[in-house]
Structures are given as structure tokens and as C-alpha cells.
Amino acid sequence: MTTDFASSSETRDMSLSPVAGVGKARRGLHMITWGCQMNVYDSARMTDVLRPLGYTPVDNPADADMVILNTCHIRDRAAEKVFSELGRLRVIKDERRAEGRETVLAVAGCVAQAEGEQILKRAPYVDIVLGPQTYHRLPEMVARAARAGGSVIDTDFPAEQKFDFLPQDAAPQTAGNVSAFLTVQEGCDKFCSFCVVPYTRGAEASRPVVSVLAEARRMVAGGVREITLLGQNVNAYHGEGPDGGVWGLARLAYALAEIPGLDRIRYMTSHPRDMDDALIMAHRDLPALMPFLHLPVQSGSDSILKAMNRGHTADDYRRLVDRLREARPDLALSSDFIVGHPGETDEDFEATMRLIGDVGFALAYSFKYSVRPGTPAAGAPLQVAETVKDQRLQALQALLREQQDDFNGSVVDRVAPVLFTGRGRKPGQMVGRSPWLQAVHVDGSDDLVGTVCPVLITTRLSNSLAGHLIEECALA
Ligand code: 5AD
Ligand code: SF4
To answer: Can you tell me the distance from the alpha carbon of 214 to that of 219, in angstroms, rounded to the nearest whole number?
Structure first.
């Protein structure tokens, strides 16, 4: 594994800012989360590990004794964004100090991993810098920062698995939630030309089956009805099974589907190369496995796919989609796309547009290629001009928008099972999700939360659907 960004765990005397001591007093914790669902999950777990120290979530950073900025490094100007947010937080920290209250300021996540030293140099008022692999050590870092009166940096890739150190008694952060994320796999060994993840999240690692199942059961006992299994390469999951063997994601999905009360299972993000027969068959066999799959293809051009080191062709992807739809005919797909990868010609871009036309996506995320220092594509010749990237992105997004609208329109006048998750914006309105991840609004009461009810979809709105309940739903 490349270790460019790895540094060791150490306490440094770079800041004179004292931090709040350790104890059981009630303290406010304000969490700012950027980036992917994995970061959302990590933020929830950081909240969990800090709870025994007396930290409880607060909405306003001015009320917080600790602020954690959980960062993302995947695309453009990540570090700039962090420094500008830190500038804002510094003002709050200074104001609170003037009132005699201290604030622990922590930077977590992938920018912390990649640029931890830089952060402490440019923003010495930051107390703690921690990478995504070390948040189970947060309580210890808080204590060390308090003792040392200086900054603490921990961007190790420790030998122990952070998951083994998380609170086991409950999953407090998911209490009251109907839908929850559960990280089962982390890191990536694929080394796509453009991507920083293998450097910031480290090598691929899977949690043991027993620990995943236990966490899922705890979530369900707390009222969760839908679990989204998370991993940078979630379908490369290869966890140690209770039988001592290695379980793939399909086998894990079958075991999860046995948990009473767990109505829906999803997983993301998948790589086309790891979509094996067993997983395709799981989509055929398991009604709980939702018919919506995020399967990024990035490009539809074989030469760009090769340059990206994706390990498959555009036709491989088309064939894979055919097989998935054979197994689960109502399966909808979403994808990520990058335009303007180094070397991308007009023809390459047209090939991407053709692939989109052939597959038909229910949802997609598309990005202009952005240089990530240290990745292979960063130094590649034939970088594409910004104006060309802009034009391509516009054309691509127009096509994808059309497909998304068509897909959402295709469920109008149909009945869909909706899992209700909470109140809508308008009074008397409730919101839930269709199997295809669409937000659906109906008139209804709080009793609906946590239940799956059939809804007649009547209207397509710009980013959601509206409908009405077609029968009384049994209460959860
Ligand atoms: N430039 C643009 N998009 C990127 N992604 C990852 N790295 C880059 C980059 N350097 C996109 C990919 C990936 C998604 C999470 O972010 O499409 O699937
Ligand atoms: Fe990044 Fe590629 Fe790994 Fe996805 S598969 S995390 S894009 S290196």
C-alpha cells in the first residue's frame, strides 16, 4: 500500500490552546459532516464513543464544548473548504473562550488523513486531527490533548480494527431512526487512476460477520427497519464467518434477511468487478434486498475505462446489467460518472453518452475530473480543458436528468410499498421511501413511521413523488 499520507500517532506541542478536561459533566458536541454515507456513519460512531464522556449532540456550534469537522477529500478544493470552515469555527472558539468556555476543535475524515500535518501548521488552534481509522481512540485523544495542552494527531492505520472498540451495548445514534447505515467494509485496493480513497481510507478490510449481524440486530431492536450496508467497495466484502470460512456479501445478505423486523436491505458502493453470481442470485432470491443498485461505471469508453484502471469494458458493464435485470426485473440502477478524465476525447465522451442511453439510469452523480495530487491520473498527459469538461458535464447531466424524470414518471399510477421514515415538510404530511429510493409524500399520521404501506403514486414532483395510502396500514 502507498504510504504517502500515512503518519504516526503523536502528541505535538503546536497549540497553546487548553482543551476541556475529561470527566462526566454534560457537554455539547457539534458534528459537521461532509462527503459520503461512510462519513455519516463515522460521525454517528464518533458521537457514540464520546457519549460516555458526557458529550451529547447540539445543533449550534456556539453551544458546543467540542466541534468535529468530518471531512471529505474526494474532489476539488477539499483542503480550502476545510480551512475556510475552520476560520469560522475559530471565531466561535475565541468568543467562547472570552466567556470562559473552552472548545475542543477536531478535524476528522479523509482530509485529516491526507493533510493532517498541514492542518496543524496552518490552523494551530485545532486540537485534534484524526484519520478515518482511529476514531475509536477519540476519548484517549481528548484526554491527551487536555493533558498536553497541545494538539494531538492520529492518522495511523492501526492494526486493531476500530469496529472492535465501538460501544457494544446499544446503537444510540440510530435510536429512533427507521433507516440506518452500517459499515461492513472499508478501504480499497482497486487504485482507480483518479481516486484518493485507497490512500486516505487504506487497504480493503471487512468486518467479521458476527459483529455485523450483532450490530444489525441492535439496530432493529432500536426500531430500524432498513439497513444500508456501507463500504467503499462493499461488494468486495469478505468477512470472517462464524464457521471460520470467508463470507461474501451475498451470504451476509441472506443472513441479514433472516433477522425478524428487518424489512429492507441495501448496500453501496459496489464495483462492477465484484458483482459475482452469488450476489446476482441474492437479488433474485431475497425480497428484502431492494431493487435499487448503485453501480458506478464512471465512463462508457473502453480506452478511458482502461486508463482509469477500472478493470472492465463498457460491454462488460452492459452484460452485467442485463444479468442483474434478468435476476430482478424491476431493478433500477444508479451510477457515478466522471467527465474529462485525462485523455478523454469527444469520441470517448460520446461512448459514455451511448452507454447511458443503453442502460437507462434512475439516478446518477456526475463530476468533472479533478486532479488529486498523488494519484496516477494527476500527472497524466492530455489533461482536458475546463471549458470542455463544463460542456460535457452539461450534456451528460441533461441526459441523466431526462432519464431520472422518466424513471420517476414511470411509477406514477402504480402502487409501491413505501417505508415511512418521518414527517414531511407540510403539516399532516408524512414521508417515506419507495423500493427505488424515491422520496414519497402522503397525507398521514405519525403512526406510519416504521411501517411499510402500499401507496398509489399520483404525482411526480421535481425530486420526489406524491401519492395516497390505499389501505389502512397495520401499526408497527
Ligand atoms: N475527480 C472527479 N470525480 C471523482 N470521483 C472520485 N475521484 C474523483 C476525481 N478525482 C467520483 C467518482 C466516484 C465518486 C464517489 O466520486 O465518480 O465514484
Ligand atoms: Fe476509488 Fe476506484 Fe476504489 Fe472506488 S474502486 S474507492 S473509485 S479507487
So the answer is: 9
